Amino acid sequence: MKSSGSYDKNSIPANMNRIEAVDDVIGQILKQKSPLERLEISFGLWRSARKQLFFYLRSLHPDWDDTKIQEEVVKRISHGAA
């Protein structure tokens, strides 16, 4: 990888080209968790993503009220299905 912060596609390991790829170490850790623990981790990640998107949209649109921001969060997370 280049030190400038930009990435050369050829320098990224093959398993890093897919965002859904799980790191081997993380995979081993998750295998040791119970189904309930994995579900709790998933819900925590989901809540974190929603919260981050909410505050990101708030910073982009300071004129929007919380209801409008929440509607946009739902739209983006559901890929427009909601």
Descriptive account of the structure:
- The structure is a single chain.
- With 82 residues, this protein is mostly helical.
- It has one domain (9-77).
- The chain is 56% helix and 0% strand.
- It is built from three helices and no strands.
- The protein has helices spanning 24-31, 35-60, 66-77.
- The longest helix is centred in the middle third of the chain and has 26 residues, at 35-60.
- It is extended and about 45 Å long.
Could you provide a short overview of the structure?
With 82 residues, this protein is mostly helical. It is 56% helix and 0% strand. Helix 2 crosses helix 3.
What level of helicity do the residues show? Answer: 55-70%
Anisotropy-based shape: extended
Q: Count every helix, treating DSSP H or I runs of 4 or more residues as helices.
A: 3
Q: For the CA atoms, what is the radius of gyration?
A: 17 Å
**How many E-type strands?**
0
Order of helices and strands: HHH
How does the helix and strand content classify structurally? mainly alpha
| N-to-C CA distance | 39 Å
Oligomer: single chain
Mean pLDDT: 84
Question: What is the makeup of the main sheet?
Answer: none
Tally of distinct domains: 1
Low-confidence stretches: none
Strand content: under 5%
